[in-house]
Amino acid sequence: MLNMLTQLLGDDTVLLRRYLGLAIVYGVLSGLTILALVPLLSYLLIGQLSVATAWLVALLFGILVCWGVRWYLEQAGVRVGVAILQSGRHRLGEHVAHLPVGWFTAANTARLSHATTQGMMAVAQLPAHVFTPVISGLVTPIVLLSALLVLHPPLGLAALVALPLLLAVLSLTTKLARHADRAFQQHFAATSQRMVEFASAQAVLRAFSGNHHSTRFLEQAMQQQQRSGTRLACLSALSALLNAWAVQIVFAVLLIVTSLWINTLLEGALTVSSTISVIIALVLVSRFVEPLLDVAQHSDILRSAKGQLEEIQAIFDAEPLAEPTTPQPPRDASIELRAVRFRYAPHEPDVLNGVSLSITPGSMTALIGESGSGKTTLARLVARFFDADHGSVLVGGVDVRAMSSTQLANQVSQIFQESYLFAGSIADNIRFGYPDASDAELLEAARLAGVIEIVERLPQGLDTPVGEAGTRLSGGERQRIAIARALIKNAPILLVDEATAALDAENQAIITQALARLRGQRTLLVIAHQLSTVSMADQIIVLDEGRVIEQGAPDELLAQQGRYATFLGQRQTAKGWRITPDKTRETAQ
Ligand SMILES: Nc1ncnc2c1ncn2[C@@H]1O[C@H](COP(=O)(O)OP(=O)(O)OP(=O)(O)O)[C@@H](O)[C@H]1O
C-alpha cells in the first residue's frame, strides 16, 4: 500500500514519510503517557502523595504533549491527503496522456473517471482520518507490552503472542471482503458508465427500444451493483464482527492470565506491592486492548481504500507508448508502411495483414476499400494511436517509434469522423490546433474550412460558445470547426477520414475544396468515400481484409479493371457520374 501511495505522491512522498514518522512518535508518546500511570498509581496506593502528585503533573504534561502532537498530526495527514488529490490526479493524468489511444475504451474510461473521483477521495482520506488511529493503535500497545513484560512476564508473553495473532486475523478478515469490494467497485464504475450512456443516448434509446426497454441495460447494471453491494455489506459486517471478537478474545485471554496470577498470589502471601502490581496490570491490559479495537474498527475503510488504490495501480500498470531515448526528427513529409501487421487484441484476428505502401511528400493518396477492410486502422497507425505488432510505420523516413510524440504530432494533423469540440468558443476550438496562431491565420483556417459562413450568421461570431462537446452546433458545423482546427496546425501531413453519409453536400464540398487547395502543398492521405475526392488523388490504394490489393495511379488501376474500377462504377451509378476511359478525372454531369 505504501509503495502505491509513493507512486501517487511522487516528489510529495516526503510529506507522507514525515507524517508516518510523526504518527509513530505519537503512538510511542501515547504509550509512555499511559505508562506514567504505573508510578502514579503505585505511589498513590502506598500513600506517597507528593511523589504521586509529581507523576500526576508528568501525566498531565504527557496528555498535553499528546494533544499537541495529535493536532499537528491531523494537519500533516490532511496535507498528505490534499497532496494525494493534487499530485495523484496530476500524475495519473500524465500517465494516461501517454497511453495508446486504443486504451480508452468505454470500460477503461469509466474506470479512470471512478479512480480520479471516488477512488482518489477514498485514498486521500487514509492519511487524513485512518492512518493515525491505525498506526498509534498498533504502536501504543507495543509500548505497553514492554511494561507488561516487566510487571508480570507471563502476562507480557501472552500479550506478545496475541498481538501478531490479532494482526493475522485482521489481515484474514480483510481478504474475506476484498474480492467483494473489488467486484462492487467495478460494478459501481460500470453503472456510472451505463448512466452516462443512458443520458447521452436518449434519442437512440427512445427511437429503437421504446420507453420500457430503454432502461434495460441500465437496470441490469444497477441490479448487478445492488447484488455486489449486498454481498459486500454482508461480508463487511462479518469481518467487522470477527475483528471485534478477535480483540475481545485477546482481552479475555489477558484477563484469564491476570486471574491465574491473582490466584497464585492468593495461595501465597498477598503483599501490598503485589496487589498494586495486579491493579496496574489490569489498567494496562484495558489500555492495551482499547487502541486495538480502534484498529479493528478502521480495517474496513482501510480495505476499501486499498481496493481503490489497486484500481488506480492497475491504470498505472497500463503500458504507455514507448518514447525513444534519442528521438530522430522526420526528414520529409513521406509516409511508408513496411509489412505492417496489427490486431486490436491478442485473441482477435489481424486487422492489417502485411501492409506495405509508400506515399511521396506532397502527394495525395486515396485509401479505399470495403467497410471493415482496415482503412481507419491504417491511418491510426500513422498517427501512432497504436504501435504495429510487426513491421514498421515510417513518417518522414523515420520509424514513428524512433521519434518523440511531439515530433510526430507536429508532423501529422488529422481530420477524423468523430471530432470532439471542447467547451469554449469557436475560435478557442480552432486555436486548439495551434495556440500561437495569429488572428489572420485563424481567419484563413476558418475561411478554408467554411467556418466563416457559419460565424457570419452568429451574433458573437468566432467568439460564439460551442457548448459542452459542441452540442450547440450542428454535426456539419462541428465537422467544419474540426477541419479548421486541423488546417491551422499546418502540419506537413494531413490524414483525413472522410465521412460516408454523415455530411451533407455543402459540407462535403467544403472538404473537397479544402483538399483541392492543400493538394501539392501537403501530403494527404484520405480515406475516401466520395468520388470527388478520389478523382483528385495522385495515388489510389485499395485495401481488402487488411491487405493492399491494388496500388497505383488512378489511370493504371482503371485500366486494370479491378477493384478500383468496380468502386468507380458503383459510385458513378449512385451519383449519376460518368468517367471517360482516357481521362481519369471525372466530371460532374
Ligand atoms: N477499437 C477497436 N477494437 C477492436 N476492433 C476494432 C477496433 N476498431 C476497429 N476494429 C475492427 O477492425 C476492423 C477494421 O476496422 P476499420 O475501422 O479500420 O475499418 P474501415 O475500413 O475503416 O471501416 P469503415 O469504412 O467502415 O470505417 C474491423 O473488423 C473492426 O471491427
TrEMBL record:
PROSITE patterns: ABC_TM1F, ABC_TRANSPORTER_1, ABC_TRANSPORTER_2. The keyword Membrane applies. It is a multi-pass membrane protein. GO terms for molecular function: ABC-type transporter activity; ATP binding; ATP hydrolysis activity; ATPase-coupled lipid transmembrane transporter activity. It holds the Pfam family ABC_tran. SMART domains: AAA. Residues 335-570 form the ABC transporter domain. The chain crosses the membrane at residues 20-46, 52-73, 130-151, 157-177, 232-262. This is ABC transporter ATP-binding protein.
